[in-house]
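debug: dumping io for the single-chain case to check the tokenizer round-trip. Nothing else runs in this session.
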Amino acid sequence: MLINDSVNSVYPGINASLGLSDFRKCSHIFTSQGFKQYCIASKKATFAENGTHPLNMQKCWFLCIAILFCGLHSRAQTGLEDWNPGYVVTSEEDTLYGPVSLLYGSDLVQVNDENKIKTFGANQTLMVYIRERNNSETERYIYPFPFHPFSDFKPQRFFEMLFSGLYLSLLSREMMITETVPLYDNFTFRTYYTTRSRLQQEYFLLFPGKKVRQLSNRKDLLFQLADKKDEMKKFITSQKLSIDRKEDLLKIVQEYNQLKTPK
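debug: decoded output
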């Protein structure tokens, strides 16, 4: 456990070594190897029938590629909606036990309470607890905090608590992003570009008073920790830490809390 005994936890019961969700492996209609075998078989069959290669071979291969990435995109989208055992504490302090589904994109949480699906917004929730079904040792604690990167109006949003400290805490949000990637076609010897979705974790700092600040780079991190800037810069440099790695951020936040703790 990475939380130091000298650091008082604002949110008790939180394990600083919590990891990301491991999404379930699910089957899809085709695989890339299956595409290739299908197209090769189709090519051979057509050639055997009329002695010529199929005229629409390129279209067939391109269509298979499109189907593959549509399947991957759909599978990635449903990952955040996976159901895991847990409970939800509402703003009225009611605790609802059952399978829980957290939707970061819309900041909603659903719970199957006695075979009834109930949905709550972040402003209607005090806390969400999830124990991953595929890894019973992984527990996740999610809290709502007011946040908006630009506006003074800050709606409630869900954040996973990775580290709870008296002076500084570490939060994260899992977001689905879409990116364009190249895909080489072995039949036409051309490179096509397609889109895919993948899970990305964003990190945030939580200061006293529920002040949430998003991390963007090392300079921004040191600016946020201005009162201990020199000490933290030396610590980060000597330990060769990166703000892109959760394990390194946990060390940084822990060190800051230790520096702030009265000796």
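debug: round-trip ok. Residues 1-8, 12-55, 64-80 have pLDDT under 50 and may be disordered.
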